[in-house]
Design brief:
It is built from 4 helices and 5 strands, in the order H-H-H-E-E-E-E-E-H. The protein is rod-shaped, with a radius of gyration of 59 Å. It is an alpha+beta fold. Strands 1-2-3-4-5 form a 5-stranded antiparallel β-sheet, with helices on one face. Among the domains are: 92-174, no CATH class; 175-254, no CATH class. The protein has helices spanning 3-128, 134-148, 155-171, 230-240; strands at residues 176-184, 189-197, 201-206, 212-216, 221-224. InterPro entries: UCP028069. It holds the Pfam family DUF3450. It comes from Thalassotalea euphylliae. Keywords: Coiled coil, Signal. Residues 1-28 form the signal peptide.
């Protein structure tokens, strides 16, 4: 090999080395670029995954909210159905009450005149009855008439009071009672003690125990009694007042049909 050729070979070798070195540098640059590109792709992928994760979480939250809303809607629908049934039942009750009220108005139209007739009948009965506790009985009837004219008293309460007055009158037939009051003898009025055994006998005695009278319902007047009844009547009054123990007693009684 000639000297020139050696030089040429050395030059070629050097050129080859430089070319190889340049090739290696170019490869290294390409690798770096590739790594940078992969890093960017990885970062972009991570960012995209993060967005996907965020969107997924939001989707899950929205799905949970939707399910909750659906559940609440079903609960509300069930409750609304329950409330509607209650409202329907209340409306039915209101309609029933209205029908009853309308019926009460019709009943009132018949009951009110009946009560006035009952009061009139009761007043006539008291006027014809044995006049025991006469003042209280007449006051009770007058009170009934006042109640009937009072708009603040319900019809049911008015009717109750009328029935109560009838019950009180009925009880007078079984009561053994004594009280003090005014005795009208026609020509004079005195304070006396009265005792009655139901409607069988009504007797009055002066406060000095010296005089006594028995009511004659046939003549509607007081008949004076003899002195022989004085002590018996006094004891009877005391028994009625629970001042003496109950015992047999002898009182003047008009037989049926007697004048």
């Amino acid at each position: 090999m000639s000297k020139i050729s050696k030089k040429s070979l050395i030059a070629s070798t050097i050129a080859g080395v430089f070319a190889l070195a340049g090739s290696n540098i170019a490869a290294a640059d390409a690798l770096t670029d590739l790594q940078k590109a992969e890093m960017q792709i990885f970062k972009a992928s991570a960012k995209s995954q993060s967005k996907i994760d965020s969107i997924y979480e939001q989707t899950q939250d929205l799905l949970a909210d939707y399910r909750t809303t659906v559940d609440e809607a079903e609960v509300l629908k069930g409750y609304n159905d329950h409330v509607q049934r209650m409202v329907d039942d209340q409306n039915a009750n209101i309609a029933s009450l209205q029908r009853q009220i309308d019926g009460i108005d019709k009943i009132k139209q018949g009951v009110v005149p009946l009560m006035y007739k009952m009061i009139d009948t009761l007043e006539k009965f008291v006027d014809l009855d044995v006049p025991m506790n006469l003042e209280n009985r007449k006051e009770r009837i007058a009170g009934l008439r006042d109640v009937m004219a009072d708009s603040n008293v319900t019809t049911s309460e008015q009717f109750r009071l009328v029935l109560e007055a009838y019950e009180i009158e009925a009880n007078y037939g079984t009561v053994f009672d004594a009280y003090q009051g005014e005795l009208d003898l026609g020509d004079r009025t005195i304070t006396a003690d009265f005792v009655h055994m139901g409607r069988v006998a009504l007797i009055a005695q002066s406060l000095d125990y010296k005089q006594a009278w028995v009511w004659n319902n046939s003549t509607r007047s007081w008949d004076e009694l003899g002195e022989e009844y004085a002590k018996t009547i006094t004891d009877t009054i005391r028994m009625a007042r629970k001042q003496l123990p109950m015992d047999l007693t002898k009182l003047p009684v008009f037989a049926a049909g007697a004048q």
